[in-house]
Specification:
mainly alpha; globular; 0% strand
Length: 238
Amino acid sequence: MNALPMALLLFADVSMLGAGYYYGIRFIRRQHNLLLGIEWLVIGLSGTNVLFLAATGIVHSSFSYHLMVFFDAFSRSFGMTLVIVLGMMGVTRGYRPSWVVEVGALAAAVAVGLNRALDVRPVELGWAIFYLLMNLAVALFMFAVAVRLWRAGERRHAGWVFVATALGALVAAIYDFFHIPGDDADHTLFYILAMSVWALMLVTYYHGYRVLGEYTRGASRDGSAEEAAGVSGVVSPQ
């Protein structure tokens, strides 16, 4: 592999794993969202494993390669899809899933990850279609989140969430169905694009969640204040 593609690949990977760890911890400690925090940390671990593979050489029979397949299937099946929807609904619908729902979503992702890790052959058409449909479904959801941000007056965050989601859907469409012209057997150009986009998604989705949460709490406080003022006006002597 040439030096420039390798440097770009490493930069994209470090950006992705850095965003996964940094914002995963912030999701847990500042936003108190364990579900999204775990998925972000999983992506950070995945990026760390890719660094190890790059340093030691890609051997398809190695534990690290099987681990890479596990992380990939984990996130593409229910991690960056169902988990994101359930986690984001805390600020879009005021819904906090029970621990049973959270464990169920993560268990489903683990099950798919283990299934794929035990069979590292090229992704079959059925799995490829499943991954794509899951991604497109969550893309529609995140476009709706972008609209909410726009209506809340957070147009910069809305724009970034929209762009990241559109690029994420593009990556999902390319993943198993197209080959980038000039790419090598290890799909280096694709992974430079993919990991860069995933890093962008991790950052913009966190900040979209954060500002929507702040907006929702602010609107709730304003509504409570108006209600209290209205009640006070009714009962106070004229």
